[in-house]
Amino acid sequence: MIEMRDGIKLHTTIYTPKNASKAYPILLKRTPYSCKPYGENEFSEKIGPNKYLMEEGNIMVYQDVRGRWNSEGVYDNMRAFIPNKTGTQTDEASDTYDTIEWLINNIDNNNGNVGTYGISYPGFYATYSVLSGHPALKAASPQACIGDFYFDDFIHNGAFLLSYWRATSVFGYMKETPTTEAWYEFPDIGTEDQYQFFLDAGPLSNLDKYYDEDNVFYEQIKAHPNYDEFWQSRGIIQHLKDIKPATLIVGGLFDAEDLYGPFNTYSSIEKNSDNFNAVVFGPWSHGDWARTKERQVIGNVYFGDNISDYFQKDIETPFFNHFLKGDANGKVDLPEAHMFDTGKMEWVSFETWPPANTSKESYFMQPYERLTKRANRMIATSDFVSDPKKPVPYSEDIKVVFTPRKFMTDDQRFAARRPDVLVFETEILEDDITLAGDILAKLNVSTTGTAADWIVKVIDVFPPDIETPEDNEDVQDHLKLSNYHMLVRSETIRGRFRNSMSSPEPFVPNKKTAVNLGLQDVFHTFKKGHKIQVQIQSTFFPYIDANPQTYVDNIFEAKEEDFKAQTHKVYNDSSIEFTVLK
Asked: Which residues contact 437 (CB under 8 A, 6 or more apart)?
């Protein structure tokens, strides 16, 4: 129980190598998810970021953060960073500093160098650690790191991620004393059909019966639908300046939870610091790079073998060894940006990310489902009726999932064939086209209502002559890869936030209005013989909650009568801007 500067004690589990003949670095992981197993004679089968760092010898440390599990104190979700702390003021940076100070002064055979790491929420704490200012902290690897809860995990550009509704119980219920047993429960929704459950529930206010006011986090989400001071103060991206420790930012190109965080963590450090700062993105869903599966598959798409092992052995381990065991001032033999091309199925290294040799290319959304490099001068629209009581599913699957993973590469033919999904598609490509960086949808739209969500999907349409493997090991039985519509990237914006995330405004019915939507970076080659497809829709259920399409100040307080079908139009001067590798 390590005591912090304000007297609060944090539970810490320490694993040290039996060989005491030499000094070792310390690798620290701070987590809200428990340091289990607890007890002096209880040991985890696997410790550290990977087996290589475990087997070659490091001091591995785990800590329950303030207010979680066996630690004392009060928990604060995404606790705000205090830049100029005084006296006994604390945040996660000071808790990290006090922990490191205790470790290097109390653990035998440590070499005085500390590294931090973590995936998802622990990745947020790894990011936070670089703000601690402790001189012993030499390296940090934030992985799938939350950067801002208004754009990661629970909310995307103002839209509530309904699929994470059950997860609010994990973060929302507080505890009064240290505990080694879970003090929260997931609500029992009584069905395995997630789509039907939320459809039958109706307005978000009808879900209140599953939680009481003790679920602090869900109450905060409901009370702060806009990007106000509550959310802004909890973002960590804006504080990443003059970072000293070496950083290795890691993410998955098909991570449904945390894409905003790692991309923006890397770019903010790169822009505002002069440290060693590298980024790795592979063909992974949330946290896949820390697993040991030989075949790397997301949904129905196979990307290759031993991809995670390659990262662990040849990227992650050399990073920590160099800065914690080697000559930290010497040149490290790692690329600045190591990215996996999810179309060609291969790794490529770059000196910068996005690469320097790229250009912006726009494709326009034309009548008759055409996606072209030129817009028709005549004004035309593509129209559809969006009914919030019959929303477009985000996946063909119906099961209740805590973390949606598979849909990130799912076949989108089921959506393309619905009347409330617009489809725009290129001709068959005569040459490869590689997208390497961000995507910006520049929509010009109108609606008969006063509110609407806009979902943009970028899709790789496979040729009809692609054969499905005979053993069909990775592809769902009812699917064939012939003409497969592989989702490459999707994103949502709640239309009321088109001009400001903090100052929402309704649409004027039937008035042409600009809505820009940035999609997170991709690195994907659309091969010769394939087609690029863009789908536009206004529901993505129940990944995203249904917009009533009638403007209300707070959607969490919308009534049944507010939910109305509306006709949406997308004008033919709408475009999608790709970052294309030359």
From this structure: 353, 354, 355, 358, 521, 522, 579
Angle of helix 92-106 relative to helix 121-129, nearest 10 degrees? 70
Q: Are strands 2-3 and 381-386 parallel, antiparallel or unpaired?
A: unpaired
Which is it for the CA torsion 59, 60, 66, 72, positive or negative? Answer: negative
The CA distance from 231 to 77, in Å, is 10
Sign of the dihedral through C-alpha 67, 402, 250, 541: negative
Separation of alpha carbons 516 and 540, rounded Å: 18
- Contact in structure between 173 and 214 (CB atoms under 8 Å): yes
153-199 residue pLDDT tens: 899 999 999 989 999 999 999 999 999 999 999 999 999 899 999 99
Q: Which residue in this structure is represented by tokens 């929302």?
A: 172
pLDDT of residue 45: 86
Q: Which two tokens stand for residue 491?
A: 């994103």
Alpha carbon distance 340, 348 (integer Å): 6
Assess contact for 128 and 66: CB atoms under 8 A. no
Is 81:39 a contact under the CB 8 Å cutoff?
Answer: no
Q: Quick one: tokens of 263? A: 């991309």
Q: Are 79 and 236 in contact (CB under 8 A)?
A: no
* Terminal-to-terminal C-alpha distance of the chain: 55
Residue 382 CA to residue 375 CA, distance in Å, equals 14
The beta strand positions in 129-287, using DSSP E, are 137-143, 155-156, 159-160, 246-252, 277-282
How many whole angstroms separate alpha carbon 451 and alpha carbon 320?
A: 49
Distance CA 450, CA 365 (A): 23
377: which residues sit within 8 A by CB, 6+ positions away?
A: none
Q: How confident is the model at residue 460 (pLDDT cuts 50, 70, 90)?
A: very high
Task: Give CA separation, 115 vs 57, 128, 135, 137, 499, in Å.
Answer: 14, 13, 11, 6, 41
User: Facing residues of 155 across strands?
Assistant: 160
Query: Taking a C-beta distance cutoff of 8 angstroms, is the pair 115, 139 a contact?
Result: yes
Give tens-digit pLDDT for 287-330: 999 999 999 999 999 999 999 999 999 999 999 999 999 866 66
Neighbour tally for 447: CB within 10 Å: 23
Please return the burial class of 229, using the count of CB atoms within 10 Å of its CB with bins 0-12, 13-18 and 19+.
exposed
Q: Phi and psi for 194 in degrees, rounded to 5?
A: -65, -40
